[in-house]
Amino acid sequence: MNRKQLWMTVGVVLVACSLAAAERITTFxxxxxxxxxxxxxxxxxxxxxxTIYGYYIDASGVAHGFLRANNGSFTTFEVSGAGTAxxxxxxxxxxxxxxxxxxxxxxxxxxxxxxxxSDRGNITxxxxxxxxxxxxxxxxxxxINFEGTVAGYFSDVNNVFHAYLRGRNGDVxxFxxxxxxxxSGQGTGTAEDxxxxxxxxxxxxxxxxxxTLHGYVRATDGTITSIxxxxxxxxPGQGxxxxxxxxxxxxxxxxxxxxxxxxGFVRAPNGTFTDxxxxxxxxxxxxxxxxxxxxxxxAITGSYIDxxxxxxxxxxxxxxxITxxxxxxxxxxxxxxxxPLLNNLEGSITGYDIDGNGVAHGFVGTP
Length: 367
Prior knowledge:
Blueprint (H helix, E strand, L loop, with lengths): L2 H5 L4 H7 L6 E4 L11 E7 L5 E6 L5 E6 L5 E4 L11 E7 L5 E6 L5 E6 L5 E4 L11 E7 L5 E6 L5 E6 L5 E4 L11 E4 L11 E6 L5 E6 L5 E4 L11 E4 L8 E6 L5 E6 L5 E4 L11 E7 L5 E6 L5 E6 L5 E4 L11 E7 L5 E6 L5 E6 L2
Antiparallel strand pairs: 1-28, 2-3, 3-4, 4-5, 6-7, 7-8, 8-9, 10-11, 11-12, 12-13, 14-15, 15-16, 16-17, 18-19, 19-20, 20-21, 22-23, 23-24, 24-25, 26-27, 27-28
């Protein structure tokens, strides 16, 4: 599953039209991916060269990283030290324009550690200072930019979250959003994959002492601005979560209202909010609209959860027009369906679907 679930518990118009046609969506499976429930291929992102990256879960429940080239060929990899038991292994979450990849791995004791894999396959591992060393604790690496800076967060010995930036030279800066809680399960996190832009601006969310979510954006000088979408609830598990930021400073995200329903939003650089709901999104707790990816042109992709708790994909173009789609073979039961995660500048979308047997398959939608 993608880390939003862990943290929470140019041709755009042509793409929107083409994604309605199933033949434009190609599904794929990484070599070695398991075929049981909870196993399979979890594509996480796509770059301008159509390289897709992510991880797969094998038949033993172990995760492995992968890169899929535009011609369909795969490179799979494991970090030395990654555990080999179910729930352990190597996870990949972000790829920079030079081909460097970052993610995290879970060792044999259940502890998380960050890593960077160069374009030549050399792997450097790291731990944020202050990261816990017990099972379920440690360092998550979720973003890497062209400068080689990594952004993510870690959980300490008290299970409190703290965000960090790691420079190319290995220096780590830890930061916490003002108002972040200091109890177990509280603190500061970052968005995944597009949570760090080229300029070094970071965005994410923090959980306060009431277990309410708030978004934030951290400028390059370290100034942190809190983000609360109009309509966001103020109770436990409610509030605002930010998905990322592009070079223009546009921020997509979600907010959970006082009834537990999720809605999408876009925040302009001047702080103006536009909220939206995908037609067909459910209106009960745990349902609604879940944006994930944002490209430079302002097109947003993600999923919506219908009244039967099935996920479906959507693309919202910069003018606000929404097109919905389902990957071929996506299941129609609760917790199944189509989960788009990222779209590139060329308008291609990647993510995964979960079929009727609970198995995940990667997909790419192309114009």
